[in-house]
Input
Amino acid sequence: MRSPGRGTIIGVVAGVLGLAPWLATGANLPGQNLWSSDTLPADMPIVLLPIHQYFAIDLVALLVLGGALAGLAVRLLRERASEVRRAAALALVAVQLLAVFQSFFALTGGLGLGLAFGLGMGTRALAYTGGMLLGTLAVVGASQAIYWLVSSRRAPVSALGLCLGVIPIGTWLGLWYMLSVGPAGGGVASYELVRWAPGLAVGVVLGMLGVSSWARVGVWAGSLAAVWLLPVVFGSVQYALGTRNAFGDVYLMSDLARTLFVPLAGELAPPALGAAVLAGLLALVLHIVRARRQASPLRQRQREVPSVLAPQ
Output
């Protein structure tokens, strides 16, 4: 039986790697509209997560990618012992909950919630903090779900989890790209990276999975739908959350999200189609390679028969 310590290492490393692009930026808390005092961006406290409604998609990417990485490591290292898998899950959630606690501790301190009631801002500050906390904890739960799917011993289940887990990879890679070129240098290149990276990643996963069973066909259908529609949902929700005048007004935010949904769905259709094409081509190539490998021993035996029968 393998030591659970291996799982602990996997969970911790994966959790930190998921947060890495944000930590590499310097990890200053984004400027807050309800901050209790005027503070320059460079003087904002250091936090392990970018708690801000404008960074909602970034939060999803930083946490969900950690779950996908942990599950992938468990599967690639063939850690089948349940103790190791549970240890990895616990270590992952411990790292992410620590990041949540530290970040919200810094946030509530800066918002000055105790003093805010005297200024008539307590309700807004509490609603903002509570909403962001609930949303962040929900993403931590989603990260755990992705981990257990990806680490599954069944290939279709693992592939489905991996396809769902890599959908925010464009945002995650975009953070690294912005770090290398600076905020002013991102522009179109950063947007295209966010737009196309998920489809390419999902296409590779599906191509390697193949379509040898109905379960795998179902994974193809679900994953291709997800790589198209989930970024649309993320983008629509981010647009609604990022509209300052609408923040906190559920009905107005819902209307804004619905307004963007259809045009964004059309804009993100090509990457989903590209994922399908890439997956199909890769699956075809792998099928041909496997067929040749299976046929090669037969051809070898056929070549050996005449030599055996030939006179010496």
User: Anything to note?
Assistant: Residues 185-302 form one domain. The two ends are 55 Å apart (CA to CA). DSSP finds eleven helices and no strands in the chain.
